[in-house]
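Dear colleague,

Following up on Tuesday's group meeting, I ran the structure prediction for the two-component complex that the binding team flagged. I've pasted the input sequences exactly as they went in, so you can double-check that nothing got truncated or mislabelled along the way. The C-alpha cells for the whole assembly follow below. Feel free to forward this to whoever is handling the docking comparison.

Inputs:
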Amino acid sequence: MMEKKYAVVVAGGRGERMTSTVPKQFLVLGGLPILMHTLKTFNEADPKIKLILVLPVSEILFWKQLCIQYDFQIDHLLIEGGTTRFHSVKNGLDQIDEAGLVAIHDGVRPLVSTKMIHEAFVTAEVHGNAIPALQITESLRHVANGKSTSLDRNHYFLVQTPQCFKSDLLKKAYDQTYVETFTDDASVVEAMGETIHLIKGARLNIKITTPEDLLIAEVYLKETNNN
Amino acid sequence: MMEKKYAVVVAGGRGERMTSTVPKQFLVLGGLPILMHTLKTFNEADPKIKLILVLPVSEILFWKQLCIQYDFQIDHLLIEGGTTRFHSVKNGLDQIDEAGLVAIHDGVRPLVSTKMIHEAFVTAEVHGNAIPALQITESLRHVANGKSTSLDRNHYFLVQTPQCFKSDLLKKAYDQTYVETFTDDASVVEAMGETIHLIKGARLNIKITTPEDLLIAEVYLKETNNN
C-alpha cells in the first residue's frame, strides 16, 4: 500500500459513567494508561501511520504530563477537541493535508488488534471505507412509543472502530452540518449517499465506559499477551 | 405475592463456541459449576420458587454426579430437553400443573441478581409478562441483501432472561407450532398477539458462550461478592 495513512484517535468522553474522576482514557490498564495502549497498537500496526490525538482542551496538559511520567515516545500530533465527537473528529481531519487513508478510532478501545487495523486500511483502499461490525448474538427488540417488537437479530450489527476511509471522502462528509444521528463516522459518510462496507469486528475490541469494562479489559489484555 | 412461582432453567447448548469439551453450563465459576450458581440464585431470591432444570438427555447423568460431587442440596426437578430451546422450554412447562407465574432463564446466565428475579415476578403478576432488556450503547447497523444502513440505537434493546410470564399464558403460547424466529420466550408470546412488557436488564447478567465470557464472569462474580 503506497497511500499515506493517518489515524485520528478521539477521546473526548467525560467518563460520567465511571466512578473515577479521571477521564476513562487515562485510567491505567496493565500498567499503562488506556490511551497509550491505543496509540501503541496503531504504531505497531505500521510505524508510518501518522497519529493525531484529539483531546478536550482541559485534558491537554494532563496528557503531556502523563507522557513524561510514562516516558511515552510514540510520536503523535495533539489537537484540541470540539463540543461533540463529530466536532472532535473534524478538528482531527483538519490536520490532514496530503490525501490518503484515515482511520478514526475511539481512544477507549485499547484492545484493537494490529490485524484489524491492517484489514481496515486495506479494505478502505479498495472500497473507499471499512467499518468493523459485530453480529448481535442475543435476542433483539425494537421499542417505539412505549411498545416493543421482536426483531430478527441476524440482520443487526454493532459497529466498532477503527472506521477507515479515503481521507478526501471523509473530509467532504465532515463538511456536512452536524445532526444528532451522526453517532459514528459511517453514519456521517452514509448521509452523503456513500455505500458502507463492513468488515468483521472483534468481541475483544470493547469500548471502556464503565468500571466493569476496565476489569474486563484487564482480563482480555492478559489473554492477548498469552497468545 | 400469593401465586405459585416456577423457574424453568434451560441449558441445552452444545457449547460449540467453547474450546472445552464440557458443555459450558458445567464449567466451574468461582469454585462452583455455572448451573449451580444459577439455581442457587433463584433459590436465594425465594426458596418457594419451584425449580425445573431442563438438560439434554446425554447430560443428565453427568449433572447428577456433579450434584453429588459438590453436595448440591437445592431441590429441583430434572427434565430432559428437546431438539431446540423452544422444545426444551415446552418440556419444562409440561411439568407445571398448578397455575402461577413462571420465569424462563438461560442456565448460562449465572450472574442474574435476586433483585432482577424479584422484579420479573412482581411485574409479570401485574402485566402478564416481564422481559429484561438492555439499551444498546454502541452504533447499530441493519444489514440486508449485502447492504447496510445506520439505525437510531435509542430504539433497540438486547433481551436477557429471566423472562417471566403468567404460566397459563406461556403454556398457551408454547402450544403454537415452532418457527425459527422464536429466539426467546417473548417472541413466542408476542406471536400470539400479546403485548410485551420490558423491565430493566443488567450489564452484569451476561450469557456465557465463549472462553472470554467465563473470564468476565469470574471478574463480575468477585465484584458482586465485594459489594
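Helices of chain B lie at 34-45, 60-69, 85-93, 114-127, 167-173, 185-190, 211-226.

Cheers,
M.
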